[in-house]
Amino acid sequence: MDRKRVLILGLETSCDETAAAVVENGSRILSNVISSQVELHARFGGVVPEIASRRHLELINSLIDEALETAGVGTSDLQAVAVSYGPGLVGALLVGVATAKALAYACRLPLVAVNHLEAHLYANFLVEGRPNPSLPAVGLIVSGGHTELVLLKRPGEYMPLGRTRDDAAGEAFDKVARALGLGYPGGPAIDRLAARGNPDYFHFPRAFLDGESPYEFSFSGLKSAVINHLHQLRQKGEEIPLADLAASFQSAVVEVLVEKTVAAAREHKVGSVFLSGGVAANSSLRRVMEERIKTQLPGVKLYYPPPELCTDNAAMIAAAAYHHYRKGRFAALDLNAVPQLPLNA
Ligand code: KG4
Ligand code: ZN
Questions:
Q1: What's the confidence (pLDDT) of residue 1?
Q2: Is residue 48 classed exposed, middle or buried when 0-12, 13-18 and 19+ CB atoms within 10 A define those classes?
Q3: Residue 258 Cα, ligand 1 centroid: separation in angstroms?
Q4: Residue ranges of the domains in the chain?
Q5: How many CA atoms lie within 13 A of 180 on its CB side?
Q6: CB 56 within 8 A of CB 95
Q7: Could you tell me the CATH superfamily of domain 7-123+309-326?
Q8: From the CA of 344, how far away is ligand 2's center (Å)?
Q9: Is the CB of 186 within 6 Å of ligand 1?
Q10: How does pLDDT run across 14-59, given as a tens digit for each residue?
């Protein structure tokens, strides 16, 4: 297949963001429309699956219209329709999958099935004019639902190195934020508050799981330690140093994420490290990872997407789809949602 102009419409409905985007050649964003349901779910402290699916259904068609209009293209200009088919909430994923299949059939376009986790990694390819990052790379995907360390050998070829045994990193941020009374989603609130706090004020436990499973993660012990400490302070009637608590919690999460990512990059002798997923927007994670790679792995390049491409979006779906398109890897119209889809499926 030659490198002609390939326009792909991407759809994303795996959790609480409804999104549609048009991307050219896997790197140039022509439109990237997102409708977040955060406010709808905020009063429940987390995503309510039935509400998410219903809202996706209400929004998806108008978001597709808006994405095409903003990009200045019609369906006849597209080369493919791409959709994330897992992992995620089954009812939510089904809205995107059914819509993409209907569009592909009606417009006679090939359908590309994209793994949502793979797409998070490809958010790092969405920089127009910059050469693509070199592979192999180590990727850290940290979001509300996932904490995965992977080796990207070639486009479409992944080796999972480790994942969380319990809470995802973003989930820990959200739960600690809730205990601190900071609302949902908690990650950005903790990030802001921690900037005014002392990260060494409290020493919370870090689960390195050395030896047995060096690339696995565990955040539930840390989360419980922070929440228990908070309760003790409240019981004693002491003033709660919220910013110091936030900063000390955040530094424990960041230290484990950075240590393991750097160790994996060293072991696998990669030239690039990718951060992706909502937690990759965390300012401390970016800063510490940058410093540690600079001093410990000279020559290795760190990539992270701008904050709006860290969290769920459809541009990353279209970017990942481009590599499948070029290899002619298309899905049949009986494509189904796969809520537990692993990365190397
Ligand atoms: O990738 P994403 O939008 O959705 C999932 O696929 O889960 O990630 C959302 C998660 C939430 O847990 C949110 O608290 C976290 O990313 N997050 C952050 C930051 N911004 C978003 N966590 C820490 N620091 C941030 N700045
Ligand atoms: Zn995600």
A1: 43
A2: middle
A3: 17
A4: 7-123+309-326, 133-304
A5: 29
A6: yes
A7: ATPase, nucleotide binding domain (3.30.420.40)
A8: 16
A9: yes
A10: 988 899 999 999 999 999 999 877 777 677 767 778 777 888 899 9
> What pLDDT, on the 0 to 100 scale, is given for residue 3?
54
Give the neighbor-by-neighbor strand order of the sheet with 157-163.
157-163, 147-154, 137-142, 272-276, 301-303
For residue 71, what are its two tokens? 């990009």
pLDDT (tens digit per residue) in 193-229: 999 999 999 999 998 877 778 999 999 999 999 999 9
What mean pLDDT value characterizes the chain? Answer: 93
pTM for the predicted model, two decimal places: 0.92
Instruction: Determine whether the shortest distance from the Cβ of 148 to ligand 1 is under 6 A.
Output: no
Dist CA 63 CA 189 (whole Å): 28
Residue 5 CA to ligand 1 centre (angstroms): 33
133-304 CATH, one of 3.40.920.10, 3.30.420.40, 3.40.50.720, 2.30.40.10: 3.30.420.40
Residue 143 Cβ contacting ligand 1 at under 6 Å: yes
Which helix (H) or strand (E) is 317 found in, with range? helix 315-326
- Say yes or no: CB of residue 86 within 6 Å of ligand 1: no
Ligand 1 pocket member 305 (CB < 6 A): no
**Number of Cβ atoms within 10 Å of the Cβ of 204:** 19
Atom of ligand 1 nearest to the CA of 171: 12
CA 245, 218, 134, 324 dihedral sign is: negative
Instruction: Dump pLDDT digits (tens) for 268-294.
Output: 999 999 999 999 999 999 999 999 999
Pocket test for ligand 1, best of 32, 143, 184, 285 (most atoms within 8 A of CB): 143
Which of 142, 175, 308, 311 has most ligand 1 atoms within 8 Å of its beta carbon, as the pocket-test mutant? 311
